[in-house]
Write a structure and sequence with these properties.
The protein is α+β, with helices and mostly antiparallel strands and about 210 residues long. The chain contains four helices and nine strands, in the order ββββαααβαββββ. The two termini are about 15 Å apart.
Length: about 210
C-alpha cells in the first residue's frame, strides 16, 4: 500500500476543497493471486471466467459485495469516493494522475486488452498508486441515484432489469475498453447496480492510518 497524506485537496470538476485524514491505498488493483488466496481461505466462489494463469492481472467479474468481503478479510475496506479521487489526482486538482497533460501512453484506455496490475508506472498518481485511470473500472463505497441513461443501459444487460429503487454504486477511473482518455476521468463516475459484475470492473482497497 502507499500513503495518501492528510490535508486539503481539490475535488470534482469545479475543484472544490475538501479535507481528509491520512490513509493507505493499494498501490495496484487487487490481483487474481490475492483474490484466489481470499477465496481459498473463506471458501468463497471464484468469479466467473477466473483465469488461473494470470495471477498478476486485476481480478474482475466481482460485485461490490465481493469487494467488501475481500477487503474485510484483508483488514482493509473499499475506498470512499473522495479517498479514491485524492489518491488519483493529489491535492492540487490535476486532471490526470500524472499531471494536466493528456497522454494516452500513460493509461490502459482504449486498447481493448486487460494488462497486469503493476504496469503503466509512468501513469502513477502523486501517492504512487498505479492505474487509477484505465485497465479496470474500480468500485468505490458510495451509493448513488442512477441517471435515466444508466437505467436504460442496464435494461437489457441484467435480468430482472434494475430499477432506481435498488442499490447502485459508483465506479471510477475508466477501463481498457473505454472509448478514449477522458479529461474528467479522475473525478467523474459511472453507476452500476450492486449485483453487477463485468470483465472490465475490479477494485482496490484502503486502510486507515492508526
Amino acid at each position: 500500500m502507499v500513503l495518501v497524506a492528510a490535508g486539503p485537496f481539490l475535488f470534482g470538476g469545479k475543484k472544490e476543497q475538501a479535507q481528509l485524514p491520512a490513509f493507505y491505498i493499494d498501490r495496484t488493483e487487487v490481483t487474481n493471486d490475492a483474490y484466489s488466496r481470499f477465496s481459498s481461505a473463506t471458501h468463497r466462489q471464484l468469479p466467473r471466467g477466473f483465469p488461473g494463469d494470470k495471477p498478476g492481472y486485476p481480478v474482475v467479474n466481482v460485485t461490490i459485495e465481493d469487494a467488501k468481503a475481500f477487503a474485510a478479510w484483508a483488514g482493509k475496506r473499499v475506498p470512499k469516493a473522495l479517498e479514491w479521487e485524492k489518491a488519483a489526482r493529489g491535492s492540487n486538482g490535476r486532471l490526470y494522475p500524472w499531471g494536466d497533460a493528456a497522454d494516452k501512453t500513460r493509461a490502459n484506455v482504449g486498447t481493448g486488452e486487460l494488462r497486469p496490475a503493476d504496469e503503466f508506472v509512468g501513469g502513477a498518481g502523486p501517492s504512487g498508486a498505479l492505474q487509477m485511470i484505465g485497465n479496470v473500472w474500480e468500485f468505490v463505497d458510495e451509493t448513488v441515484t442512477p441517471s435515466d441513461n444508466a437505467l436504460a443501459y442496464f435494461q437489457d444487460r441484467l435480468k430482472p432489469a434494475p430499477t432506481a429503487a435498488e442499490t447502485w454504486y459508483q465506479i471510477r477511473g475508466e477501463a481498457f475498453n473505454s472509448d478514449k482518455l477522458e479529461e474528467g476521468a479522475v473525478w467523474d463516475s459511472g453507476a452500476v447496480p450492486a449485483r453487477w459484475h463485468e470483465a472490465n470492473l475490479g477494485f482496490r482497497c484502503v486502510r486507515d492510518v492508526k
